[in-house]
């Protein structure tokens, strides 16, 4: 039997209802909540789609939601991951596509933050492994501000095989690595790009690094030699955006 999930927070619930990709069973709002424009819009979206709206005490919503719910939550079907072959077919029709490949990101807040950055930057897909990685949970959804609904997310069994299939389809694979052979701003991203970012503890795995075309690094002249994975991903993703924007090869919006 399919297990329902809880999506919470105003931006996440609004994005969920606007996307209309998942079955929404019920919308919960806190009794006595102030009906500002955002809440009114969310409730109207629910009613227009025949979704029941239930007012409940704050204490009960605290039990239903995992974190800061901002007075609103929804019971929904689990997220539907996209098949890799389906994403690949889409990528074949995109000039200078960008895919973010996450090799073992286990913190849901980091995954959510990276997804949000990827969507803002116009990336075309996110790839995560089925093992050694957080799946897309309610916490990821909240951290992404609902942007999990706005980008194809793929779960794969083998990251290396996935990278090789991308390379067979004219992708250059850039791995973020502290000992990379060149700085991230020296690489040329005006091609089909797969950006590999490693997990919080181990970084990009040794085997995955061997299958990257280029290993890139972020200069760190200060007193530490690493960044939060979401911060590092954001820096590199926006260098890709900067290069494409400066060359007039960036197509917006997606």
Quick description:
By secondary structure, the chain is α/β, with parallel strands linked by helices. It has helices spanning 10-19, 37-48, 58-64, 84-91, 108-120, 138-143, 159-168, 206-210, 229-246; strands spanning 5-8, 24-30, 53-56, 72-76, 98-103, 125-129, 153-156, 171-176, 182-183, 192-198, 214-217. The protein folds into two domains: 5-76, Ribosomal protein L30/S12 (60s Ribosomal Protein L30, Chain: A); 84-246, SPOUT methyltransferase, trefoil knot domain (Alpha/beta knot, 3-Layer(aba) Sandwich).
Radius of gyration: 19 Å
The average pLDDT value, as a whole number, equals 91
CATH superfamily of the largest domain: SPOUT methyltransferase, trefoil knot domain
Strand fraction:
15-25%
Total strand segments? 11
Structure write-up:
The strands form two sheets. Strands 7-6-5-10-8-11-9 form a seven-stranded parallel sheet, sandwiched between helices. A four-stranded mixed sheet has the order 1-4-2-3. It is an alpha/beta fold and 254 residues long. It has nine helices and eleven strands. It folds into two domains: 5-76, 60s Ribosomal Protein L30, Chain: A; 84-246, SPOUT methyltransferase, trefoil knot domain (Alpha/beta knot, 3-Layer(aba) Sandwich). Strand 6 (125-129), helix 6 (138-143) and strand 7 form a beta-alpha-beta unit. The chain is 35% helix and 21% strand.
């Amino acid at each position: 039997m399919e297990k329902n999930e809880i999506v919470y927070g105003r931006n996440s619930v609004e994005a969920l209802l606007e996307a209309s990709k998942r079955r929404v069973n019920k919308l919960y709002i806190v009794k006595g909540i102030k009906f500002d424009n955002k809440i009114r819009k969310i409730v109207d979206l629910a009613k227009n789609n025949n979704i029941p709206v239930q007012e409940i005490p704050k204490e009960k919503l605290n039990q239903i939601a995992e974190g800061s719910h901002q007075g609103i939550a929804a019971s929904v079907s689990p997220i539907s991951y996209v098949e890799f072959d389906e994403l690949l077919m889409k990528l074949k029709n995109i000039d200078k596509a960008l895919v973010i490949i996450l090799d073992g990101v286990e913190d849901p807040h980091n995954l959510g933050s990276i997804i949000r950055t990827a969507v803002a930057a116009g990336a075309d897909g996110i790839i995560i492994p089925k093992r050694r990685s957080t799946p897309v949970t309610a916490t990821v959804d909240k951290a992404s501000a609902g942007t999990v609904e706005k980008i194809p997310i793929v779960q794969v069994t083998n990251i290396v095989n996935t990278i090789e299939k991308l390379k067979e389809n004219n992708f250059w694979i850039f791995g973020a690595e502290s000992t990379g052979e060149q700085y991230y701003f020296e690489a040329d991203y005006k091609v089909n790009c797969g950006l590999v970012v490693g997990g919080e503890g181990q970084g990009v795995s040794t085997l995955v690094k061997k299958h990257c075309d280029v290993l890139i690094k972020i200069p760190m002249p200060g007193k530490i030699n690493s960044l939060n994975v979401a911060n590092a991903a954001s820096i590199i993703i926006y260098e890709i955006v900067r290069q494409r924007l400066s060359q007039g090869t960036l197509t917006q919006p997606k």
